[in-house]
Write the structure tokens for this entry.
Amino acid sequence: MRSPARVVAAGVVALALGGCAALSPDSQGAPSTAVTHVLDVYAAASLSEVMETLAVGFEEVLPWVDVRVTYGGSSDLAAQILEGAPAAVFASADEAQMAAVADEVAGEPVVFATNTLTIAVPEGNPAGVTGLGSLADDAVVTVVCAPQVPCGAATATLAAHAGVDIAAVSEELSVTDVLGKVASGQADAGVVYVTDVPRAEGVEAVAIDGADAVVNRYPIARLKRSDFAEIADDFVAYVAGAEGRAVLAEAGFGAP
Amino acid sequence: MTGPRWLVPLAVAGALLVALPLVGLLARANWGDLWALITAPASLEALALSLRTSIAATALVLVLGVPLGFALHGLHGRVRAVARAVLLAPLVLPPVVGGLALLYAFGRRGLLGGPLEDAGVSIAYTTVAVVLAQAFVAMPFMVVSVESALATHGSRREAIAATLGASRTRILARVTLPALGPALATGTVLAFARALGEFGATLTFAGSLAGVTRTTPLEIYLARETDPDAAVALSIVLLVVAVTVVAVAYRPVAGRAVR
């Protein structure tokens, strides 16, 4: 495997040879530090903090690139991409949504992170949730993602795997909505990704036994419509490479 | 009276801005399966829930909004201006802000919801929560209809009725309310339509569960990703309702005659 530094360096060289005139109008020698190219990255909502860190790290390597990240539910973003949204890179929270945009993808998507599910409860765990089994109890106000969205699909699979019939009072449209309901105390428990808990205020996690049985794999890919393919490819390589890995691990994401 | 000719291209652009998206929606529809999509179980369940909750919310708005319109009309000067500004705020409030406000009032840890929860009454995640959210956003339509009708109505006939010895309640029932008929009808239709379309506050405050809190707009939002045809079919149902409501509520003024 190539090191990310070398990949980026290769990109820089490619730019210097190729589209450099277009990138920095006054470039006679060193590339200008003024931002001259915007890279539009569409990323799953669960990546919001970590992708921000990755974007800043990438911009330090290529200062004339402005990484602009749009966050949303993966299925929502996939629908937008199919409707022609100007995304250069797509980072999805599951492989199904990447498959949905397969016709728009350049090359093969790379799985760069994994995530598992956990139970989020308000601080102090007022309902005394101990595991997935607690969520079958009607007395525990539980919210989950709707089965149509990736976190809901994973939740349904895990519940079936564990033989638990979750008594949910609401099937939310995104994992952020589940987290919001738990954080505000509207719900006693919600099934979210492991990486969601540290991002939320006033929320703690109750681990699910056997959560490893359902692993969400996050693929990233460049889209055919990207106008500067080298930069987009470099970004994909950066996220999937060692530096990206370190940032992702820090945020609690598993290795691919 | 028509304006200068240079207004025409701007008017055409304006018409396109409004009409083109609607045409876009219609162009995306799967007309062959439209009926099947609308009558699919998930769609019917959402439509039935929307109908039930919107009727309940409209009834609530009638019972509470009409007296509120009267009360507002009875205020004067700056007090009235401030009261009106607060009461009509949901008209322009971002839906998600309304949802948060409802959450902190009626939610499990809310101002009123907390004590209610302790008393064993739970509003969150119930159909009642949906009705509350819809009534919250629909109320201003009734209040503003009643208040502005009262402002143009004057009090001459009420004064005559009073000199004839009619009680206040009798004057309200026999003189004022009948005169307000058209305004009440307009307020009712607009409140119903607004309730039917409520999305943000419901999502933030009530949750989303099929048959309980997942109204048609929430079902459209969910289906849009996995079943766009169904989302478009349900959207067309709401579009037809919206166009009908506007046609009824803003029918030509000539029909309402001079008082």
